[in-house]
Amino acid sequence: MSQGGAILRRHGGWKNSAWQRSNARFVDRFRKQIVATALIFGDRIAAATAAWVGGALTKISGLDPAHTKHLPLALLVAAFFCLRLYTGCGPSPYEGFRLRTIGIAGFIAVDLLIGDPVGEPGSLLVAALTALHLLILGHYIGAIVRTQLIHLDLWGASTALSAVATKAES
Q1: Domain residue spans in the chain?
Q2: CA–CA separation, 100 and 104 (whole Å)
């Protein structure tokens, strides 16, 4: 056998018309921004849902919801951005889960420092449950967004396959 290598194309013949070629160039040009926007949108949905659940838990636990101060959710997205969770190809699912955990832990820690829950152990429990909801919802919504981006050929990078020749049997 001889050495073989190939660079795989995404699709064989989908770029037929001029409109499709210009649309494909636009998508290829702004692929990283489209992926980052989709991931940020998914995280905003997860954060808003987790904040809503946290507010409901605050009311159920009998804490004063007007007394609690929270950081804006945009800072959570900024923390994820600084951790490079929104890169164009994206980290692996396990790496994304680890980065998401670090970002949420830092966000909740700063939120608790600013909120000053001294003498209110219930607010610590609510913050821990909100962080857990944020982690779980963010991970699964991120997986759904990632699946849709893979389906639309926006996730990942070009791949080159190569093989090394093996000894021929005599």
Answers
A1: 20-155
A2: 6
pLDDT-derived band at 64 (thresholds 50, 70, 90) equals low
Tell me the mean pLDDT in the region 21-25.
66
pLDDT category of residue 101 using cuts at 50, 70 and 90: very high
